């Protein structure tokens, strides 16, 4: 894997990736470690998180249900300092508005917007004054499709608005949002099934 981070920028710095045990988050963790950062990943499954950290030689792992503030607080209690925070947690909570289970649709916002708020509040002043905070929105925010992605698209768009507001509230800490297109991960296939290629 190509190292995307110049070593001089993050070498020896502490990186926390929420949602870092698979997909984009895991790739970011591997690349940050290769650039010399001390990377900790947080995932929902403690067994997987431990396996990922051991396999890739990461500095540590944590586990929490990001829809529950109490588990976020418990997981982050012993994190002393964060230089770079990446928030990627979130399942592909899709379903058509007139048909889907509303609890499932709520997860789109709970796992993204509210999880980000809870993580930031839990860490508080342990975020370095020059911390970089990175959110993920996604192409759905601009281009929802007909496969039940309306609420997920709204949550993706909300991440961009949240980041713009937090950039002002949390300055001089930096807050940015990345918007990747569809990534061919197992999560995408599970969520969209036959609609994945569309």
Quote the distance from N terminus to C terminus. Answer: 28 Å
Low-confidence runs of at least 5 consecutive residues:
none
Instruction: Find the structural class using helix and strand composition.
Output: alpha/beta
Q: Helix tally?
A: 7
Morphology: globular
- Proportion in helices: 40-55%
Q: List the strand order in the largest sheet.
A: 3-2-1-4-5-6
Mean pLDDT: 90
Question: From N to C, what is the helix and strand string?
Answer: HEHEHEHEHEHEH
Number of strands: 6
Radius of gyration: 16 Å
**Largest beta-sheet characterization:** 6 strands, parallel
Strand content: 15-25%
Structural commentary:
This protein has helices spanning 7-10, 23-34, 46-56, 69-76, 102-123, 150-169, 186-192, and strands at residues 14-18, 38-43, 60-63, 82-87, 127-136, 174-178. It is α/β, with parallel strands linked by helices and 198 residues long. Strands 3-2-1-4-5-6 form a 6-stranded parallel sheet, with helices on both faces. Strand 5, helix 6 and strand 6 (174-178) form a beta-alpha-beta unit. The model has no long low-confidence stretch (mean pLDDT 90).
